[in-house]
Amino acid sequence: MTRLALTQLTLLHFRSHKRVVMDIDPRPMAIFGPNGAGKTNLLEAISLLSPGRGLRRAAADDLIRRPEVLGWKIAAQLQSLHQTHEIETWAEAGSPRRLRIDGKAAPQVSLGRIARILWLVPAMDRLWIEGADGRRRFLDRMTLSFEPSHADAVLTYEKAMRERNRLLKDMVRDTHWYGVLETQMAVAGAQIAANRLRAIAELTAAQDAAQTAFPTAALELTSPDPIPDDLAGALAANRGRDMAAGRTLIGPHRADLDAVFTDKGVLARDCSTGEQKALLISLILANARALARDFGAPPILLLDEVAAHLDAARRAALYEEICALGAQAFMTGTGPELFTELGDRAQYIEVTDSDGTSTVTTKDSL
Questions:
Q1: Strand pairing class (329-333; 357-363)
Q2: From 295's CA, which of 35, 66, 110, 187 has a CA 20 to 30 Å away?
Q3: Pair 120, 281: CB distance under 8 Å
Q4: If DSSP codes are grouped into helix, strand and coil, which group holds residue 196?
């Protein structure tokens, strides 16, 4: 099978981990230990091998181990399809994050071309009942997994919108400045919308084609105001209203992701907590199946405390799907009993803490 997998991971002064060197095989990895031991920190380090700020969206300085404040570094060996890559990312105190791939400086978007990493963390459990910002980020992460250039489009759009909003707040009426920014927003916004719709189509097809123990979700991209085809013209026409509000009121930054539990015909936000979690897992699995076909290998999965909210039958079903997919999955839980259904199909790592320093111990078996 064509693989996408980490084969080695090294952490230096990263959060609670002073120094960790892990040799990894392509099997799923079950990571267990008490709360606060540093399990999620391992997953966060791996998430930084993809574009962006990782699964906690932390600033570079927040990742530095205390009290030394020496800066941090992550080094990894990644097998991506038929190539092996050496990745190093690091930051010194007060400096931005830097990246090298195969010994050469590289922009973060380059990570999206050699790896696909998906994650599910407990903070996402409230996705369907909180604000639209979180759902947009969730959709954009999935969209980025299909189209790495999506990050560039989002950054271009947001930069132009911030400048436009500054002009609006300052009551600037020079149409030339607005015209340049609105053209940039329209071009990038059209790409954002197209990328998001493609991602939703890919997820829908992957759900429809699979037999799974997890519920399917019907997805729809919505907005409080319809986004017109001529976004530049609409932005120009809307300047008065936007100036009164002090911000831009139409565009893809106002989009939302609606989901309906297909079998019940119930909006995700009205489902039980367990059903909402199951829908999230279903979407991550659908994303993984679609990527396995689109990228040529299943993505790396980071599933933080995923088993804690599942009964034994659904835990077993999740592990079966991960193994059948052939994905390298890193899963955390407080105790080894949460992973007994995996048996010898997984690697096991125990994480403990002593005076604020995490220790990582490989286990041959449970």
A1: unpaired
A2: 187
A3: yes
A4: helix
Handedness of CA 126, 129, 133, 139 (dihedral sign): positive
Q: What is the pLDDT of residues 205-258, one digit of tens each?
A: 999 988 888 999 999 999 988 888 899 999 999 999 999 999 999 999 999 999
DSSP tally for the chain: helices H, then strands E: 9, 15
Question: Between the CA of residue 44 and those of 14, 113, 118, 263, what are the distances in Å?
Answer: 10, 20, 11, 34
Alpha-helical (H) ranges within 209-311 are 231-237, 239-245, 273-294
Calculate what percentage of the chain has a pLDDT beyond 90.
86
The predicted structure's pLDDT at residue 211: 86
- For the chain, the distance separating the N- and C-terminal CA atoms, rounded to the nearest angstrom, is 27
Q: What is the pLDDT of residues 164-201, one digit of tens each?
A: 999 999 999 989 999 999 999 999 999 999 999 999 99
pLDDT of 1 over the 70 cut: no
Domains of the chain listed by start with CATH number: 1-116+297-366 (3.40.50.300), 127-294 (1.20.1050.90)
